[in-house]
Specification:
Blueprint: H1 2-46, E1 57-62, E2 66-69, E3 76-78, E4 83-85, E5 90-93, E6 98-103, E7 108-111, E8 116-121, E9 126-132, E10 134-138, E11 145-149, E12 152-156, E13 161-165, E14 171-177, E15 180-183, E16 189-192, E17 197-200, E18 211-216, E19 221-225, E20 231-234, E21 236-240, E22 247-253, E23 261-268, E24 276-279, E25 282-290, E26 302-310, E27 316-318, E28 323-327, E29 334-338, E30 346-352, E31 360-366, E32 370-373, E33 379-389, E34 395-396, E35 403-409, E36 418-420, E37 425-428, E38 435-440, E39 448-455, E40 463-467, E41 471-475, E42 482-491, E43 504-509, E44 514-519, E45 524-527, E46 536-541, E47 547-553, E48 561-566, E49 571-572, E50 580-589, E51 596-598, E52 602-607, E53 615-617, E54 620-624, E55 630-634, E56 642-649, E57 655-661, E58 665-668, E59 681-690, E60 700-713, E61 718-721, E62 726-728, H2 730-735, E63 738-743, E64 748-758, E65 764-770, H3 773-777, E66 786-789, E67 798-808, E68 823-827, E69 840-842, E70 845-847, H4 848-852, E71 860-863, E72 872-878, E73 884-891, E74 895-898, H5 900-906, H6 913-917, ...
Parallel strand pairs: 9-11, 19-26, 28-35, 37-43, 45-52, 54-60, 62-68, 70-77
Antiparallel strand pairs: 1-4, 1-6, 2-3, 2-5, 5-8, 6-7, 7-10, 8-9, 10-13, 11-12, 12-15, 13-14, 14-17, 15-16, 18-21, 20-24, 22-23, 22-25, 25-26, 27-29, 29-32, 30-31, 30-33, 33-34, 33-35, 36-38, 38-41, 39-40, 39-42, 42-43, 44-46, 46-49, 47-48, 47-50, 50-51, 50-52, 53-55, 55-58, 56-57, 56-59, ...
């Protein structure tokens, strides 16, 4: 049973293995087929189509690609650089692309982006049909060219340049150089000369329309220059039917949409021939348009694209100028290297034995900026590299400067020169150390090199190695710790051995050698008072037997060493130095001088202390006021961060105030301070301090500045009258005057009262001085303690301030100039008298009815109630038209009589009789108060004017015709 089961399992396993193998094989076959298909597809997709016929042109393109369609194939083919083109090929350039078609006869056609053209081989020349876009054609010296556009043929002469652009209104052609002829199927023929712009197909352009023809730059023109900086791009163009003084704008941009304009110039149409711009390397778009976009010349806009190429001449790099190659039998391989020049497609290398290159020994083309020549024998050689430019068909141009080198043949094998490790180097001999590379100069004759290693100062080699290259790699663990040296000699193919090189010493030690300075930091500054406290620290790992020292010098080259301190440990302190700049380093060296290792120098400076400050106030005397603290002031010290301030009383030496101040002033209340005594002497000190900045500068102190002073507590003048902010009646201020009184505690030597009016804009105007400035100049220096001042402004009143400028007998200013001590008062304006009341007129109507009664007075009486304090009354009478008939003043009475008939006679000539005999008249009365202010007994000053009040009366006197009568009487009485 078991045997049967086992047999079945073995059979199943064999069957499974057979199926798995077949499946695996099938998968591998499928993968191989898929890979082959993918490779064939890729090769087919990226392969450029070709024909079994002779090409007529090649194509190159920039900034993207171009496509080609055969005349007999409907498939577009993606072209590669320098692809062949055939008869009937249609070429299409993509957006932002540009393609150059070079025909085998030397003609060139440049297709702008989004342009389609078809090229043909004609019996005598080549031709192209421009289907869309624009094309620029330059013909060769020996071949013409035919362009077809819009059913017309344009035959180009040799050495001609033409641009044709297809548009909705017809195809426009511009001839830049040479000439062309245009013909159609009917045989119509037209010649076009240089500088002409014509229409090919479509309607002919309006000859009277304004137009701009640009001859330079040409479409997609390349400008190549070889100097540093920018180059001048000239514009050559011609305006037609445009006024000479019309203003145009030239814009230069890095993009075709002119969103970033790098140059903008305004010019007049007559200045077009002198137009130019300065541009560096790059692709630029230009546009000429009228400055007035909405003007009559808005259609005169021309644009284009140019490429500016800056190609600096090559610089010769190797061999170095004047270098000498040595050889014995085998000619040296001279590698020549130069810098690249932009836009150069290749270079011509010329080597000559003459400086004028009249007899070159080597002249070769190279597509790279380097070349190796192994055929030069002994002699002096001159060489140069000259770029070849296909741009604008320039060819070779802008050669490098001339270099020179020598090749010398020597009879004996020269001793090799050792490179690394340099003399005195240290190599790591630890078990985990990397291999050390020993290298030397390559020798042309050598087939192998012999390398010898010596232990210590022994002259017998400890070990010898051979190498075919000019280097050998040795593990550092193979060298015991200590001093070693090595040398190399070369061996040629005849087994001749050169003299050995000079020995070069190196030291073997476990780990990497290290010398490192730690503090002070580079450019650290230390105060001269702290230089002995400055700690120099470092780190060192050097071979045994090497001395270590700290050196301090006055120069970075350590030619003037001022201190040498043994550096057996890792720090040094207590070093005295004068002020000045110093450099320090740690130096490790062997007694024989074959090992010398130094840290890079660090600079530090020993700087002097800060200067003493200049004390400004107080000096000699300090006057303390009760209104504000006293301000101690001193000059700023350069480099100081803060100041130490101290104040003490001289009498008992008690320190009254100490503080750290970060400014150049300090306010102290010495008026109310309990320890400050009036008329005592005090001493104050200021010392500048500078903080330490870790790693930059140490702390510093300045010299002490000190001074003495006497304290005087100021007791300023006090204004006793008028009381502060009092209000004075204007009438009282005028009649009784304003009393100004003041007091002072100390005896006063000088004093002057100054009263100022405070105007509406808060400015002050002096209205009173006692004594006046003139009196002070005459010797009157003091005023009375109480004076009477006249009212400065009777009508307006106002706000006033009183300051008494005063000095004590010892010269202390005790003026009350502090704001809270200034005397202030207000004088009210003088109020006007009230209006007179109960105005009366007798009679109200001065007319015939009134005059018939002979007992009635022949006068008009005006009366009113008396006004208190009024001394006079002003009477005005006016007619209905407002003309003044009567003005008079009545003194001390409250009535007035007008003799109207006399008034009429007085106004004869000014008024007509009828105007005064009939009408309504207004009258007014104003009470006035006059006073005697100058004491002359006359009340000539109006103190209080009054309010005007008016009334009216009527006059009705009939006109009387004159009659003759003897002894006739006046019917109206006298």
């Amino acid at each position: 049973m078991k045997k049967r089961t086992k047999s079945r399992s073995s059979s199943s396993l064999s069957q499974y293995r057979s199926v798995s193998s077949a499946f695996l094989i099938a998968v591998l076959v499928c993968l191989a087929g898929a890979s082959s298909s993918f490779m064939l597809f890729t090769r087919s997709f990226f392969e450029t189509l070709s024909k079994h016929e002779a090409p007529i042109a090649t194509i190159s393109f920039k900034y993207k690609t171009a496509q080609r369609k055969f005349i007999d194939v409907a498939v577009w083919d993606r072209l590669k650089q320098k692809s062949d083109l055939y008869n009937g090929d249609t070429i299409h350039t993509s957006n932002l692309s540009q393609a150059t078609i070079t025909f085998i006869d030397g003609n060139e056609m440049v297709l702008a982006d989004n342009t389609m053209a078809q090229i043909f081989l004609l019996p005598e020349s080549f031709s192209a049909s421009v289907l869309s876009g624009s094309a620029y054609v330059e013909t060769a010296e020996s071949a013409g060219f035919v362009l077809e556009s819009s059913g017309k043929k344009v035959a180009l002469e040799t050495n001609s340049a033409v641009n044709i652009e297809k548009g909705a209104g017809g195809d426009m052609m511009q001839v830049y150089s040479g000439g062309a002829s245009i013909s159609d199927e009917s045989g119509t023929f037209m010649s076009v000369g240089e500088g002409s712009v014509v229409s090919v197909g479509g309607s002919a352009p309006d000859a009277s329309a304004p137009r701009l023809s640009v001859e330079n730059p040409r479409p997609n023109q390349n400008y190549l220059y070889h100097s540093e900086g920018a180059t001048i791009i000239p514009f050559k163009a011609k305006f037609s039917n445009v006024e000479a003084m019309t203003k145009f704008v030239l814009e230069i941009s890095c993009d075709k949409n002119f969103s970033t304009v790098v140059e903008r110039k305004e010019f007049l149409a007559l200045e077009i021939d002198s137009l130019s711009v300065s541009l560096g390397g790059g692709i630029f778009y230009w546009r000429i348009s009228p400055a007035d976009e909405g003007g009559s010349y808005s259609s005169v806009t021309v644009s284009g694209k140019i490429r500016v190429i800056q190609s600096i001449p090559p610089v010769l790099l190797a061999p170095a100028d004047g270098y000498t190659f040595n050889y014995r039998k085998r000619l040296p391989a001279v590698r020549m290297i130069w810098s690249e020049s932009a836009a150069a497609s290749s270079y011509r290398l010329t080597v000559s034995k003459s400086a004028d290159f009249s007899s070159p020994v080597v002249e070769m083309r190279s597509s790279t900026p380097s070349c190796i020549i192994s055929t030069l024998s002994e002699g002096t050689y001159y060489w140069k590299a000259e770029p070849f430019y296909s741009v604008n068909k320039i060819g070779f141009s802008s050669s490098s400067e001339t270099g020179v080198f020598r090749i010398e043949q020597k009879g004996a094998l020269p001793a090799p020169s050792l490179y690394i490790p340099t003399d005195g180097s240290i190599i790591d001999s630890g078990t985990d150390a990397k291999s050390t590379l020993f290298s030397w100069r390559f020798e042309n004759e050598a087939v192998k090199y012999k390398i010898e290693f010596f232990k210590g100062d022994s002259s017998v080699a400890e070990r010898t190695e051979y190498a075919t290259d000019n280097f050998i790699s040795v593990n550092g663990s193979e060298f015991a710790q200590g001093k070693w040296s090595w040398r190399v000699c070369q061996v040629d193919n005849e087994n001749n051995e050169s003299a050995p090189s000079q020995k070069s010493a190196f030291y073997s030690m476990e780990g990497k050698p290290e010398l490192k300075v730690i503090e002070p930091a580079d450019n650290y500054s230390v105060s001269e008072s702290l230089v002995r406290d400055m700690v120099f620290t470092w780190k060192k790992v050097v071979p045994n037997g090497v001395s270590t020292e700290m050196e301090i010098a006055a120069d970075s080259g350590f030619s003037n060493i001022v201190k040498v301190v043994p550096a057996d440990g890792y720090s040094a302190v207590g070093i005295s130095l004068d002020t000045g700049a110093y450099f320090w380093r740690i130096r490790a060296h062997s007694p024989g001088g074959d090992f010398d290792l130094s840290t890079p120098p660090r600079q530090f400076s020993v700087i002097g202390n800060l200067d003493a400050s200049t004390l400004i106030d107080p000096v000699g005397r300090a006057v303390a006021r009760d209104t504000q603290p006293y301000s101690f002031k001193w000059d700023e010290v350069d480099g100081a961060d803060y100041y130490k301030f101290s104040l003490r009383r001289i009498g008992d030496g008690k320190i009254l105030y100490e503080d750290t101040v970060f400014d150049t002033s300090l306010d102290i209340d010495m008026y109310f301070g309990e320890h400050f005594i009036d008329k005592e002497s005090y001493h104050w000190e200021v010392q500048a301090k500078a903080n330490a900045v870790p790693g930059v500068v140490s702390r510093r102190s300045g010299k002490l500045a000190e001074a003495n002073f006497q304290l005087v507590k100021l007791k300023p003048v006090e204004i006793t009258s008028p009381r502060q902010n009092s209000v004075i009646n204007g009438v009282d201020a005028t009649l009784k005057k304003v009393q100004i009184s003041w007091t002072a505690v100390d005896e006063v030597a000088e004093s002057q009262i100054v009263v100022s009016r405070v105007e509406a804009d808060r400015s002050r105007r002096v209205v009173y001085k006692n004594p006046t400035d003139k009196e002070r100049a005459a010797g009157k220096l003091r005023t009375l303690k109480s004076i009477l001042m006249e009212n400065p402004d009777i009508k307006r009143g106002g706000n006033y301030e009183v300051i008494v400028y005063a000095k004590t007998v010892d010269g202390i200013d005790i003026s009350n100039t502090d704001d809270k001590r200034i005397g202030r008062f207000r004088i009210l304006p003088v109020e006007p008298l009230p209006a007179a009341e109960n105005l009366g007129v007798h009679p109200n109507v001065f007319g015939l009815e009134y005059l018939k009664n002979r007992n009635n007075p022949r006068k008009i009486r005006l009366d009113w109630n008396a006004v208190e304090n009024a001394t006079d009354y002003v009477i005005l009478v006016k007619d209905a038209r407002g003309r003044l008939v009567l003005k008079t003043e009545v003194e001390g009475k409250n009535s007035y009589e007008i003799n109207w008939l006399n008034l009429v006679r007085a106004h004869q000539g000014s008024f007509s009789m009828s105007e005064l005999y009939n009408g309504t008249f207004s009258w007014s009365v104003e009470a006035v108060r006059r006073v005697d202010l100058d004491g002359d007994g006359e009340n000539e000053t109006v103190l209080q004017p009054g309010s005007v009040v008016d009334s009216s009366f009527v006059v009705e006197i009939p006109d009387v015709n004159p009659v003759s009568g003897k002894g006739a009487r006046n019917p109206y009485g006298n």
